[in-house]
Design a protein that fits this description.
about 130 residues; alpha+beta; 2 domains; eight-stranded mixed beta sheet; VOC_core
Length: about 130
């Protein structure tokens, strides 16, 4: 039986070498303001924008581009989604039972939505 509820991508987490540059870029170029800062404002470990981007500071990162850390998925029924995921043979990660690793390595953080939040988010047509 497939999961009968709905979900949406709430955020995408990206590891970056220079978090301050990325904060400025998303703010000044795209108008995405911060909704949360983890750590001191002058030396944040992570930040979340209004609009679904999470930036995680990793100064030693040497890759040519940002590195995907995980995708945060907001769901109507966390327990139902976890039960369905079990049938797919996913691996649970140490962060908690709502953190899953898919066979190809993609990591998901499943988050329980409050009330009708998923339906409200999905009702928005950003291209309308």
């Amino acid at each position: 039986m497939a999961y009968a509820k709905q979900s949406y991508v709430e955020h995408v987490a990206i590891r970056v070498r220079d978090i301050h540059w990325h904060i400025r870029f998303f703010r000044d170029v795209l108008g995405m303001t911060l909704r949360e800062v983890q750590g001191e404002p002058d030396a944040p470990r992570q930040v979340w924008t209004i609009g679904g981007v999470q930036l995680a500071s990793e100064p030693g990162f040497e890759g040519p581009e940002g590195r995907l850390a995980h995708i945060g998925v907001m769901t109507e029924d966390l327990e139902g989604a976890l039960a369905e995921a079990e049938r797919w043979g996913v691996r649970h990660l140490p962060q908690g039972r709502n953190w899953l690793q898919l066979p190809d390595g993609l990591c998901l953080e499943l988050i329980q939505a409050s009330g009708p939040a998923v339906a409200q988010a999905l009702a928005i047509d950003p291209r309308a």
